[in-house]
Write a structure and sequence with these properties.
Helix content is 10%, strand content 45%. With 470 residues, it is mainly beta. Among the domains are: 1-43; 47-135, Immunoglobulin-like; 351-470. It has a four-stranded antiparallel β-sheet with strand order 1-2-5-4, with no helix packed on it. The protein has a four-stranded antiparallel β-sheet with strand order 11-12-13-14, with no helix packed on it. A four-stranded antiparallel β-sheet has the order 15-16-17-18, with no helix packed on it. The protein is globular. The N and C termini lie far apart (111 Å).
Length: 470
């Protein structure tokens, strides 16, 4: 027998041995995979990943908790989901993931539990209950302080801890905060300028304005980087010019060189007296100088007339419910369908009504101010109260008769009210800014449910405020 023949038979035996071993290993792998798949199905869906941003959930509505599991899932019904403490939510299912979207900003410094029952995979197997817990951070706010040596915006916690200056300028008229920026209206060379400050790095850039003039009614949308303001030319001649005309713009990176968009509203007078961003949309609600109330997109397109009004008190975050002053009194206007009803009256007689600010959340009520006037027109007392949807009254602050309420703002999650107070108002002169305010101001933060004061600051324009003081 030749050497070549022996080598050929040896190679054939080795080949058959390798094939047998390979087949055995492959079979074992298939068996293990099958057993693993069977075990996975037998155990029901299990969580492999959870994504949630607690800080974003406190700052704005629309944040999500996303749970990814080991199996593709049957559709989850909202009735299977419980969020504690309770808050509005929606739920969606996609493949192996469940998304729970929060309809309102969550309470700060609070433990939340999301429980999803009867979670079933598309294959056979038992149902599972998924429970996830996370804690939201304590609130941080920005605050503006004016001073003889210049003005500054500070970041601070509600307890006053870790207070730090974020931006300073010789003359700050107003500012608004977005998710990652401060939009600051300053006066330079006797005209307005708009500066965008990165809240994390302090970097500053400029936004283009429609011309040389003045910015008023500065506002920012609750989500995204959309901002708006009314603008008036510095020189209004016989040929006219821009006077309180509404413009919108974006603070997104790369938008610094993009001219602002003029909001073209219908009607004979383009000047805007009051306006608001509608929460969770790209729409605006505007009241023109001639008293026309209009709902329109951010560029003025698709404008829908909503009759006439005397003022816009506010729109509750997370809703389309606007509190509007009509000739016949205050009404709650549903911006989704145009229906309206009278603002609920308080159960108690509190005196002459003043400002009204809606509180976020379904049936969360309003924050209102009242004053009692004596026979000679003397102010006897004034108060700030929370009026629930059923008329129940919770007093938040009884003011000293010498003090004056300048503005009321509500936190995005509806937990707190920020009350801007002018102490000893008769002896507290106004400054000489284009947005004039008393020289001494206090901001008091009150928990709405308990009526307890949780913080007091010197300064104004707490970053919860959606509009300037008036």
């Amino acid at each position: 027998m030749s050497t070549d023949s022996r080598r050929t038979r040896a190679r054939r035996r080795h080949g058959r041995g390798f094939a047998a071993v390979f087949a055995a290993v492959l079979g074992a792998l298939v068996l293990v995979g099958g057993v693993g798949a069977a075990v996975t199905v037998a155990q029901g869906p299990r969580v492999t990943e959870v994504r949630v941003d607690p800080a974003a959930a406190v700052a704005a509505s629309g944040s999500r908790l996303i749970v990814t599991t080991t199996q593709s899932l049957h559709e989850i019904d909202p009735a299977q989901v419980e969020v504690s403490p309770a808050t509005p939510f929606t739920v969606d299912t996609s493949g192996r993931s469940i998304g729970v979207r929060f309809g309102l900003p969550l309470r700060d410094d609070t433990v939340y539990t999301v429980r999803i029952r009867d979670v079933r995979g598309l294959g056979a197997g038992p149902a599972a209950t998924i429970e996830e817990t996370f804690r939201t951070p304590a609130s941080e706010v920005f605050l503006l302080q004016r001073g003889s040596g210049g003005d500054a915006i500070y970041r601070t916690g509600l307890a006053g801890e870790d207070s730090a200056e974020v931006f300073s300028h010789p003359h700050i008229e107003d500012y608004r905060a977005t998710a990652s920026h401060l939009l600051v209206s300053v006066l330079e060379d006797e005209h307005s300028a708009l500066l965008v400050v990165d809240a994390a790095t302090g970097d500053v850039r400029r936004l283009p304005l429609p011309g040389e003039g003045f910015v008023t009614n500065l506002q920012s949308a609750d989500r995204g980087e959309r901002i708006g303001y009314t603008f008036s030319d510095a020189a209004l001649g016989e040929d006219g010019g821009l006077e309180s005309v509404l413009f919108t713009a974006s603070l997104a990176d790369g938008a610094s060189d993009t001219p602002p968009t003029r909001v073209a509203l219908p009607g004979g007078d383009p000047s805007v007296a009051e306006w608001r961003f509608v929460p969770d949309t790209d729409s605006i609600l505007a009241l023109t100088f001639d008293g026309a109330l209009v709902l329109a997109s951010a560029d003025g397109a698709d404008a829908a007339p909503l009759g006439t009004a005397l003022g816009v008190e506010g729109i509750a975050r997370g809703s389309g419910q606007a509190v509007v002053e009509r000739n016949e009194g205050m009404v709650v206007l549903d911006l989704t369908d145009g229906t309206e009803e009278a603002l609920p009256e308080p159960a108690d007689d509190l005196g002459a009504p003043g400002s009204v600010v809606p509180v976020p959340g379904a049936d969360a009520g309003t924050i209102r101010s009242y004053a009692r006037i004596g026979g000679a027109g003397t102010l006897l007392s004034s108060s700030v109260v929370h009026v629930a949807a059923d008329g129940a009254v919770q007093t938040l602050l009884a003011l000293d008769p010498a003090d004056a309420l300048v503005q009321t703002c509500v936190s995005p999650n509806g937990r707190y009210a920020a009350l801007l107070i002018s102490p000893d108002a008769a002896a507290n002169p106004y400054d000489r800014y284009r947005l004039p305010l008393p020289q001494r101001l206090e901001t008091r933060v009150i928990e709405i449910a308990s009526g307890a004061e949780v913080a007091a600051f010197g300064g104004f324009a707490l970053s919860w405020c959606q509009v300037p003081p008036s």
